[in-house]
Amino acid sequence: MQTYGAVSTNGDVTPSGTTSPGSAVVNEKSFSYSQQELLRLIGQHLNSLGLKQTSHMLTEESGCRIENQFATAFREHILSASWDAAQHNLESLAEVLERKDDIPAIKSLILEEKYLELLEAGDKVEALKCLRVQLGPLDLGSQRLEELSSFAMYADRSTLYAKAGWPGVAGGSRDLLMDKIHEFMPADIMLPPRRLTCILQQAFEYQVQKCTFHNTSLPVQVSDPNVSFLTDHKCPSTSFPSHCHQVLTEHSDEIWHCVWSRDGKTLASCSKDASVILWSFSPDTRLLRKAHVLSGHRRGASFCSFSPDGNHILVCGSNDPQEAKLWNVTTGEAEADIKHHTDDCYSTCAWFPDSKKFILASMRGYFALCDIRGAVEHTWDGVRVQSVAIPRHPAKWVYAADSLKRVRRYDFETERAHDVITEDYPIMSMSISRDGRYALVNCATQGVHVWDLETKSQVRRYRGLTQGTYTIFSSFGGANEDFIASGSEDGKLYVWHRSTSTPVCVLSGHLRSVNSAAWNPVYHDVLVSASDDETLRVWGPNEHPNDEDGDVASPYVQNGKEDESNADRLFSVAELEGDIDE
Length: 582
What we know:
Layout: H1 33-48, H2 52-62, H3 69-79, H4 83-93, H5 103-120, H6 124-135, H7 142-150, H8 157-164, H9 173-182, H10 195-210, E1 243-248, E2 255-260, E3 266-271, E4 275-282, E5 287-295, E6 301-306, E7 312-317, E8 324-328, E9 334-338, E10 348-351, E11 357-361, E12 367-371, E13 376-379, E14 385-389, E15 397-402, E16 406-411, E17 416-422, E18 427-432, E19 438-443, E20 447-452, E21 457-462, E22 474-477, E23 483-486, E24 493-497, E25 505-507, E26 514-519, E27 527-531, E28 536-540, E29 556-558, E30 561-563
Helix pairs in contact: 1-2, 3-4, 4-5, 5-6, 5-9
C-alpha cells in the first residue's frame, strides 16, 4: 500500500517537507493511496458545492492536492475561454499523458470550441482565421474542415446550434468539452467530473437492484431528497401487492385464465361456466367492478387475449370443438364467430401489435394467421400448439410452444421457423417479457422457467410452487418486470424476484388450485389471481399494516362490499424481509 509522498503526480511532498512543483506544504500525517484518493474526491465534491475555502483547508491539513496543478490551471483556462493559456497548459501535461498522440486530438477539441464560440459571437473574421491557421494544420481531414467551414454560412445562432450539434456557451458547451477531454486524461492527474456523486449513484443503484420489494419505474437519483446515505435502501414489504383487497365470486365454476388489457383498466376472466367477465378497474380505489358478461362459449372459455389497442378481445374455448369468438370490449357485443372447419378447436391466441391481425392455434394441429374479421391469411400445418406469444418488436415474429416440448420462432413473411427453446417436459403455458427478450414458461411437473430468447439459454428456474400436468399461467410483473407471479396446484400464489429462485411472497387464501396470475401492466402494485375455487382475488399493498397484536387491520372487499370479519387469514408472506439471492 502506497503512503503519502509516493505519488508525485498529485503534487505530494517528500518526507523532508520539500514539495514537488505546485504542491502544498504538508503535515506529519501519512495516508494510504486509497485514503489519498478519497480525500481528493471529497475535495472535488466540496468545490462543486461552492465550499472552496473548506476544500482548501482540507488540502492544507491533509497535504493531498485534489489534482495536478497544471490540470487545475488547464480546466480553469478552458472554462474561462483562455484558449492560448489552455494550449500552453496542455503542453505541460503532455509528459503525464499515457498516449502522447492524444495531444492533437485534445487540441482539435479546444480549437473547435474556440471556432464555434467566435461564430456564436459574430466574429467571423477571427473564426475563419482560427479555422485556417490553427485547425487547418491539425490534419482533421478535408471532410471535417469543409463541415466546420459551412457553419460560418449560418446567420442566426439557432441554426448554428442545430447544424453543429452544439449547445452554445450558455448551454454548457465548455463543460461538455471538459467531459470529452477527461476521456484522454489519467484519473490521477485530472479527476473525472462529479466522481464522488457518480460513485454514490452506482452504490445506490446496486442497493435498489438488491432490494426485494423495489417496484417503481422512476429513475433512481442520489439527488432525490428522499434518498439517504446513512442506511441502505430497503422498500417495506407493506408496499408490495401481498394483501388481499377484494374477492370476486361472480363466476359459478372454475376460472381458468385472467388477463389485463394493455392500459391496465380492464381485466378479463375466463371460466368453465362458459362465460368471460370483463371487469372495470378503478385506479383510485384499486378495486374491480363487473362491466360485461360475455356468454355463449358452450364448453367453457379457457383463454382470452386483448387486442393491443384495447378495443377487442379474442376468446378461445376448451379442447372440445367450438368456435373462437371476437368481442367488442366497449359494448360487450360479439362481432365474429370464427370457425374454419367443423372439428376446429382453438385453445390459444395472440394479437399482432397493430391490432389488425391475430394468431389462432390449438393442440389439434391448427395454427393460423387471421385478419380482424377472422379470415385466414396463412396456415402452418401439422403444428400442435399449446401456447403462443407475439413480441412488440419485431412484429413479424410469432413464438409458439408445441407438443414437442419446444418453443419455435415463426416468421410468417419468410415462412421459416427456428427452434429457440427445448425443454425436457411438456410446456403448459408461455408468455414473453415486454422487451421481447425473455420467455416465461410453465413446465409440467417442473414449475416456472425463464429463458433468454436471444442467447437461447435458460436463465433461472423458480422453486416452491406445485406444478403437475394442469395448465397454469404465470406473469412477468412490476414496474420494470422485475417480478414473476404464478399460480400453483396447492392453492397458493407464488411471487419471485427475477434474480432469485426462492419466492419472496407466498400468498394464501384460495381453496383450490390457482390457475392464473395477472400483474397489472400499468398499476404495478396490483396483482390478480384466478382459481378453481371459482373466485378472483385482487392483491395490493397493505395500507393498514399489522397492529401490535399481529391482526390484519384492514378489511377486504367481496364483490364490492367490505367484509369486516376477516375470519380467515387472507395471506401469508414468506421471506418478506429477506435479501435477494446472488
